[in-house]
Amino acid sequence: MSRIGKQPVVIPSGVKVALDGKLFKVEGPKGELSRTLAEGIAVQIEDSHITVSLIEKRGVNRALFGLSRTLIANMVEGVTKGFQKVLEINGVGYRADLQGSILNLSLGYSHPIEYRLPEGIAAEVEKQTKITVKGIDRELVGATAAKIRSFREPEPYKGKGVMYAGERIVRKAGKAGKK
Question: What is the pTM of this model?
Answer without folding.
Answer: 0.85
